[in-house]
Amino acid sequence: MFIDESGDHGLVKLDPSFPVFLLCGLLTSEDHYNTIRDRINTLKGKFWKNKKVILHSRDIRKCEKEFQILFDLKIKKEFYETINDIIQNSKYRIISSAIDKAKYIKMYGRLSNDVYELALSFIIERAIFSLDEVKNVEKHLEIVIEKRGKKEDRKLAEHFQRLLSRGTNYVSARRLKEVNVKIVFKDKKENINGLQLADLVAYPIARYVIDPKRANPAYDILNSKIYTKKGKKYGLKVFP
User: Which residues have C-beta within 8 Å of that of residue 90, sequence separation ≥ 6?
Assistant: First the structure.
């Protein structure tokens, strides 16, 4: 499961135009990920040849850095058709968790600083629910997260170890051990395509949470990938 974020997890300042923090996980099998990785590499080779490019949602939207090529409307159309096809037709599930920061501050105050950890707990819970549906195979869950800084990574690793020892409200420590869940931190420079796809998917989901009635074509493309159980979107948890 590849995890990336959209928005700021800090509570000191609240941006009224983007009042949520969203953590987005892409859950897939190793074989299906290899296909996703290869398709994204093919896209990169097509538009940038041998140049190393990291797909970043904001840079794409703003046509910045390597994505200045998207000012050419013909290239932009072709690029979006290709990346949308990868998003829509690859094999993975989206499991995301959004924190409504205004409501959260009202309930818990600004001094609480566990927003990232809380969102991760929700995602891990739902990943276990999703894996429960896969029968008669040995299951291992590796969670890949982009490095944010030594202090932040250490804090998150400590939170993860507490989860392993205690479990969550709905998933016991035993169930976490059964799937040998572990967390891996990767540097942005390592150019991990799974993390980049999670980044592309996170922003439109966050926009949907902020204003579900607003036109959101990017969300419409990925909507069917959100983990659904008994008609309920378990892959989109909004808290509180």
Answer: 28, 32, 35, 36, 39, 197
Question: H/E element holding 205?
Answer: helix 193-210
Distance (Å, whole) CA 240 – CA 237: 9
Sign of CA dihedral 153, 156, 158, 161: negative
Please state, in angstroms and rounded to a whole number, the distance separating the CA atoms of residues 48 and 50: 6
> Are the beta carbons of 189 and 195 closer than 8 angstroms?
no
Tokens representing 236? 């989109």
Residue type at 109 in one-letter notation:
G
Average pLDDT of the chain, as a whole number = 92
How is the beta sheet containing 93-100 ordered, strand by strand?
182-186, 142-146, 2-6, 20-27, 93-100, 236-239
- Of 237, 238, 21, nearest to 125 by C-alpha is 237
Tokens 């051990």 found at: 177
E strands in 132-225: 142-146, 182-186
Contact call for residues 25 and 141 (beta carbons, < 8 A): no
CA geometry: angle 99, 29, 154, nearest 5 deg: 45
Question: Which two structure tokens, joined as six digits, stand for 152?
Answer: 């932040």
Listed residue (127, 122, 167, 165) closest to 143, CA to CA: 127
* Largest separation between any pair of C-alpha atoms in the chain: 54
Summarize pLDDT for 34-73 with one digit per residue, the tens.
999 999 999 999 999 878 899 999 999 999 999 999 999 9
